[in-house]
């Protein structure tokens, strides 16, 4: 069974986790990891929108290889899989147990969290390329400057430590960054969790839909692969993923949407909280509802429709990439 992945340290760690689980489920199975370099990885400057968003950049090439039979499965961070496109010939056949879903703060060595907190971030440049994180940061630390900052997780931290500037698509540059906000799960997977100085709770910074969940995709009609992947499926992460992604679907959220969503399970009950934020940080709509854990899409739909009722569509439209850019 060949599993395709991007070749960043984080992606490889995630794919190795899939391979480990597959080998435990079936010790006779021969699992091979096939590394892809995608357009998104080669271009470290643009804001990714030119490639049709994060998902478009990282996902399209690997999917083609799967459709062509060169691969049987593809590793995705569920968070990076677009919620507003249909792929009828492909299916997410397994979701791994969810890792930490929250975001975390990483500081340049020598800087102090106490100073950062006491000043509400005044004088600090915080790097992120996620509209959602930028929006929360502007709410939480109104005195800080949020700058565009990108790169694979390990190289992003290396850029922070070296004090590198970030080049911008228009030829300018920003930085250096004093701090980064990144997913705890990603930092854990590349062994960089010790760099975390503060964990944002999911209450203070609601994560991206699907954050912390590794997904395995395959061709819908490939029943042999689906059978293998069914064995490593985590039911709880699947239920949460379905609820959270239904919100994206209802809102027609694109990859760079300022949308957050997080589901938790307690017995037979699921709680789903989702929010839509204005990048400037001035508008914020949040909805939290409870429902039956075994009807996740119903709950996701209710939350999504409630967000729309409260004005979500207009905020999302403002951050939507130009239609043309999807073809570039
Ligand atoms: N777009 C990058 C990305 N995609 C998935 C993760 C890790 C978190 C996850 O698995 O959800 C990250 C890094 C980050 O957001 O800091």
Short structural description:
Helices cover 35% and strands 24% of the residues.
Characterization of this structure:
This is Hydroxymethylbilane synthase. It catalyses: 4 porphobilinogen + H2O = hydroxymethylbilane + 4 NH4(+). The chain is α/β, with parallel strands linked by helices and 328 residues long. It folds into 3 domains: 1-97 and 213-233, D-Maltodextrin-Binding Protein, domain 2 (3-Layer(aba) Sandwich); 103-199, D-Maltodextrin-Binding Protein, domain 2 (3-Layer(aba) Sandwich); 235-328, Double Stranded RNA Binding Domain (2-Layer Sandwich), CATH 3.30.160. It is 35% helix and 24% strand. Strand 13 and strand 14 (269-277) form a beta hairpin. Helix 9 packs parallel to helix 10 (296-309). The chain is globular and about 55 Å long. Bound molecules: ligand PBG.
Count of helices?
A: 11
Mean pLDDT across residues: 90
CATH superfamily of the largest domain: Periplasmic binding protein-like II
Estimated structural class: alpha/beta
Protein name: Hydroxymethylbilane synthase
Family: Belongs to the HMBS family.
EC number: 2.5.1.61
Keywords: Porphyrin biosynthesis, Transferase
Topology at a glance:
Layout: E1 2-6, H1 9-25, E2 32-36, H2 39-42, H3 53-67, E3 73-77, E4 90-95, E5 103-107, H4 113-118, E6 125-128, H5 131-140, E7 145-148, H6 153-162, E8 166-167, E9 173-174, E10 179-183, H7 184-189, E11 196-199, E12 214-219, H8 223-230, H9 235-251, E13 259-266, E14 269-277, E15 284-292, H10 296-309, H11 312-318
The chain binds ligand PBG.
Residues 54, 77, 79-80, 153, 182-183, 185-186, 211-212 line the site of the ligand NCc1[nH]cc(CCC(=O)O)c1CC(=O)O.
């Amino acid at each position: 069974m060949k599993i395709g992945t991007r070749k960043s340290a984080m992606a490889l760690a995630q794919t190795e986790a899939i391979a480990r689980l597959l080998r435990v489920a079936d010790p006779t199975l021969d699992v091979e990891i096939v590394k892809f370099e995608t357009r998104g990885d080669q271009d470290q400057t643009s804001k990714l929108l030119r490639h049709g968003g994060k998902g478009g950049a990282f996902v399209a090439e690997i999917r083609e290889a799967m459709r062509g039979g060169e691969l049987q499965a593809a590793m995705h961070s569920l968070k990076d899989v677009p919620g507003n496109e249909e792929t009828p010939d492909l299916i997410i056949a397994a979701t791994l147990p969810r890792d930490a879903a929250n975001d975390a703060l990483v500081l340049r060595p020598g800087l102090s969290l106490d100073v950062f907190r006491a000043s509400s971030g005044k004088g600090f440049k915080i790097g992120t390329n996620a509209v959602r994180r930028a929006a929360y940061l502007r709410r939480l630390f109104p005195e800080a400057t949020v700058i565009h900052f990108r790169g694979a997780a390990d190289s992003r931290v290396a850029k922070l430590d070296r004090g590198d500037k970030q080049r911008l698509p228009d030829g300018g540059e920003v930085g250096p960054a004093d701090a980064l906000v990144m997913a705890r799960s990603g930092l854990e997977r590349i062994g960089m969790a010790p760099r975390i100085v503060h964990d944002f709770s999911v209450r203070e910074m609601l994560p991206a839909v699907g954050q912390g969940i590794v997904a395995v995709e395959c061709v819908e009609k490939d029943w042999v692969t689906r059978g293998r992947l069914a064995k490593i499926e985590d039911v709880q992460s699947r239920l949460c993923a379905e609820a959270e992604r239904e919100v994206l679907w209802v809102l027609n959220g694109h990859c760079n949407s300022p949308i957050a969503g997080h589901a938790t399970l307690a017995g037979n009950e699921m709680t789903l909280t989702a929010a839509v934020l204005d990048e400037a940080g001035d508008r914020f709509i949040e909805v939290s509802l409870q429902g039956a854990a075994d009807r996740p899409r119903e709950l996701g739909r209710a939350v999504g429709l409630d967000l729309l009722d409260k004005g979500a569509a207009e905020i999302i439209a403002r951050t939507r990439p130009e239609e043309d850019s999807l073809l570039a």
